Amino acid sequence: MGNIIKVLFICCLLFGSALAVPAQKANADTSRYLVELSAKPADLKAALKDWNMLRSFFLDGHYYAVLTGQKSLEELKSNPAIISAGVDRKTGTAAAYKQTTPWGVKKSQAYRLTAKDCACKIAIIDSGISDHEDLKGRVQSKITYLYGKEIPKTATDTAGDQHGTHVAGIIAANNNTYGVTGMVPNAQLMIVKVFEGEYGGYFSDITAGIAWAVNNGAEVMNLSLGVHASKDEVTERVLKSAYDKGVTIVAASGNEGLTVDYPASSAYTIAVGAVDQNYRMPYWSNYGRGLDILAPGVNVLSTVNKNQYAAYSGTSMAAPHVTAAISKLLPLYTGPKNGQRVEWVRKRLTEYADMRSVALKGRTLQIPVLNLYRSYYGIK
Predict the structure, then answer these.
(1) Catalytic residue of the set 108, 316, 327, 375
(2) Residue 220 belongs to a domain with what CATH number?
């Protein structure tokens, strides 16, 4: 698995028109692999003596690792210590004033449900987070997985466009007297830094971050990142483990005006495209098979570093609106914590959404647009 995931840095224009940043294609580091192991790493030292293990992690009875070496992927796959393996793909990815409610909070009608909170943990797998007055008290835990390293209790957002901080503000900016207010102002955030900016990070960092979030109690997580490529076997296993535990993973569809990016295209995630204030889907919002819902993603005002604010566009901005909405819906669910809960969330979001006709490339599509109030109360 080795491509750069071009983080739906999918955001990315300040104040105005959207910029469609292409998802980076195969930029493979063919000596670095993300693998699923057949047993505990300590029991496989002899079988893997020709490989250097950078890191391993565990989720739901499965062991995963990042290996480097000079042998081919085919040789690695033939090793009995390996269940599945792939090249480790890479992913890449924008002064206080009187408080305003961003249009996305209004359009999704989240403002009508301010008293409906969830004690659930929301994980943001992104570029980290900067200190910001409007996010004070929202971060419950944080960790960094970057270039094979695990750094606990830190996740500083060093991305030039403050991608992760912007996403966090859309979800959880405090309801005070200045700045903006988020969809869920009292949210409990788990921040997982997996990339630094347009230079990206590896899929192995993302999968390790997802595993950490699941193991530490996340119930919904946001992935405003992706790559325009096929599904990855090992990443699918990790996504399925989260799905089977009832963890809802929301992913941005991508900004190339093409088919849906991965991991949004996975059956184990909820894929989100963008609309503007007039319910128009921008030409750059990826669509097609696998797209579940549209949400506000054009000129979205949110937090960046130095206690500032910026308006960005992209499906990276649409996804956190849905992530936050899901946290409001989860207390309504009374069934088992497994894939049924994820499918209940998907149905609740889409069945009670605002259905809109979207004209695109000579076709008219009927696509659901997020309406949290309708979804919460089951209003058609």
Answers:
(1) 316
(2) 3.40.50.200
